[in-house]
UniProtKB/TrEMBL annotation:
Record domain Amidase: where: 1-439
Species annotation: Methylohalomonas lacus
General function of this protein: Allows the formation of correctly charged Gln-tRNA(Gln) through the transamidation of misacylated Glu-tRNA(Gln) in organisms which lack glutaminyl-tRNA synthetase. The reaction takes place in the presence of glutamine and ATP through an activated gamma-phospho-Glu-tRNA(Gln).
Gene this chain is encoded by: gatA
Quaternary state and interactors: Heterotrimer of A, B and C subunits.
Name of the featured protein: Glutamyl-tRNA(Gln) amidotransferase subunit A
Pfam families xref list: Amidase
NCBIfam families assigned to the protein according to its UniProt record, in alphabetical order: gatA
Enzyme class: ligase
Family in the record: Belongs to the amidase family. GatA subfamily.
GO molecular function: ATP binding; glutaminyl-tRNA synthase (glutamine-hydrolyzing) activity
Keywords tagged on the record: ATP-binding, Ligase, Nucleotide-binding, Protein biosynthesis
E.C. numbers: 6.3.5.7
Amino acid sequence: RLHLDRCQQLDSRLNAIITLSAETALAQAEAADARRAAGQAGPLTGIPLLHKDIFCTQGVRTSCGSRMLDNFVAPYDATVVRRLQDAGMVMLGKTNMDEFAMGSSNETSYYGPVTNPWRAQTVPGGSSGGSAAAVAARLAAAATGTDTGGSIRQPAALCGITGIKPTYGRVSRYGMIAFASSLDQAGPMTRTAEDAALLLSAMSGFDPLDSTSIERDSEDYSAQLGDSLEGLTLGLPKEFFGAGLHPDVAAAIETAAAELEKLGARLKEITLPNSSLGIPAYYVVAPAEASSNLARFDGVRYGYRCADPADLQDLYCRSRSEGFGREVKRRIMIGTYALSSGYYDAYYLKAQQVRRLIRDDFQRAFEAVDVILGPTTPAPAFGLNEKTADPVSMYLNDIYTVTANLAGLPAMSLPAGFSGELPIGMHLIGNYFSEGRLLNVAHRYQ
Ligand code: GLN
């Protein structure tokens, strides 16, 4: 109740929540109390949680930040939603996000932008900006996010919280509205690595309902916290510290690295020579997959339908024109172009080849180091409307994060100092299934 009240009081300023589901929350809280009384409570029982509005929730609207799904109530729960509910967590509501998770500032949402709790008129990052702002402002103890090119880590960095994107396939995508299926991964957004470990243990593990889910049981990530960093090698890619990096961010990450060295880790400069190809490859692959995934929103089965269509063609055309926002339409156009015959080889296939090179870079690096360390974003949070007119400058915000998605690697962001009153995020990338190790490094640092 305390958290629901806080959501109601503070959200007029933050706009972090699209739907508050007070009734469901109170019922779940009662169930959690009963569980506790029966001596069956786990560590997450009764803990208040917000879900990014990309996860289907039975009986509670799932808008995906879009007019297209403004009226959509899913008939089932996403696996992530179900598992966290089974762990006893209490869902307070659904968080604001960039439309269909396309954006780095939360400004593409049909429900308006979210404010960064650290400074007014400043973006929280995106696309999981509502989740990040809500956790930073203590509206809930934790929130879920999804990360296709940085959407958990970038807003976590800009809002001063902790967020982890697991290995591709570690967490089920069932019931999570698809943006770019080969890149999308869900993960927790919390205050600390300790909290993230608890949530990730509950979220991860094989799910027969997702064909890309990996057949591997969940792990007790909390049990892996507290290991010494002695003997661990951290790699600092020289490409992550080049031109374009804000001096405050560079200084904060260098200080954090020195701190980790004091804790026993060894630092080593490495190179990821193809990392500059990450953004161009990502902005071919992601829109291509999006254009295909978003074809289902046709105004026929569910979602927005235009008024008085003249015929089927008009129904498709106007429902999609009116239901989707500008950024989503831009991505559909880019993606459709990249996949069209004659251009497929030049763009999509090429991007897939680049993707392999990026993966190979990481594999080579992981022969010499255990974890890669760098900044999550090139700069602290930027102003509202500062980058909306220039998509490329917006896309460049993801320069350090997209490569982990292209390679399918686990990666996380955690708070590492400030630039003025704005938080700075430290980025850790690990080899496949090394979530436990990443969380441990973060935990030791915190
Ligand atoms: N900002 C990136 C984009 O706009 C990443 C989004 C995401 O990870 N969902 O595509």
